[in-house]
Amino acid sequence: MFLKIRNITFVLLAALTLGACSQYQKVLKEDDIKAKYAMADSLYTQGIKEEKNSKLKKALRLLDQIMPQYRGKPQGERLAYIYSNTYYELESYFDSGYQFERFTKAYPRSEKAEEAYYKSAKSYYEISPRFSLDQTETHKAINKFQEYISRYPDGEFIGDANEYVSNLRDKLDKKAYSIAKQYHHTEDYKAAIAALNNFIEDNPGSKYLEKAYFYKFDSAYILAINSYAQLVPQRLRAAKEYYEDYIKYYPEGEFAQQAQEYSVDIEQRLQTNNTNS
Predict the structure, then answer these.
(1) Which residues of 72-109 are buried (b: 16+ CB within 10 A; e: fewer)?
(2) Can you give the residue ranges of the Outer membrane lipoprotein BamD-like domain (predicted)?
């Protein structure tokens, strides 16, 4: 008896599913934009509620067909929002970033405007690549978040927006630092000193500052001790100044002990040079 009930239930569910699919296909192929609108809205609502991407994808196919016809009509705002948010929920962030951007321009006074500004920025945040790649999308995400923060300083998403901006700026700092540090890695110490100095000046709040200060000093030290004899004293004195900069800000820093050892060697070399002069 139990198996019979189970089988009947399965058959009924299968029939309902097939019926829903056939109805969807029928609406998809017809020219009735009202029917497409109603079904797209229903599928979108169900997809969000049930967290089913399959329904969101079906809604998106219908929305693609009817968006142009509803532009400028009363239903256009609702459609533009669910169209943008469907892409967002499907994690198609290139599309959602662009569509939410269009939404804010078309409907700046919408009750969904704040959410749209935030989700446009968040979409670009999601497609921001790792630090070693081109950072165009990172800069765009920062600009979008700053626009949101400026418009909604007490907004619903302000905490997250500030956190994401911090993450993005850290990524840019890391890229800038890694480029400067690369000169040190390739033993182009003159270029390393200049690049790390520029990094320090351009990124005063970076978490990579200590490393920048140290490797600037380290580059100057290595350059000095490997120079022609007539250049050594001047370059040692320059290295000594960079050491003083580092130890001033990071007296107990990660590289403090190594820096102090180099400093002792610099003093000894300068004393030897003075004695021989």
Answers:
(1) eeeeebbbbbbbbbbbbbbeebebbbebbbebbeebee
(2) 40-193
Helix/strand/coil percent split, the chain, to 5:
80, 0, 20
Q: Which of 242, 248, 138 is nearest to 193 (CA)?
A: 242
Last-in-domain residue among 148, 178, 208: 178
Domains: count for the chain: 3
CA–CA distance, 241 with 220 (Å, rounded to integer): 10
Q: Work out the end-to-end distance of the chain between its first and last CA atoms, rounded to an integer number of angstroms.
A: 109
Read off the amino acid at residue 239: A
CA torsion, ordered 247, 251, 255, 256, to nearest 10 deg: 90
Q: What is the rounded CA–CA span in Å between residue 62 and residue 64? A: 5
pLDDT digits (tens, 9 = 90+) for 85-138: 999 999 999 999 999 999 999 999 999 999 999 999 999 999 999 999 999 999
Residue 82 resides in a domain: no
Mean pLDDT of the chain: 92
pLDDT band at 20 (very low <50, low <70, confident <90, very high): low
Task: Read off the DSSP letter of residue 230.
Answer: G
Q: Same domain, yes or no, for 36 and 108?
A: no
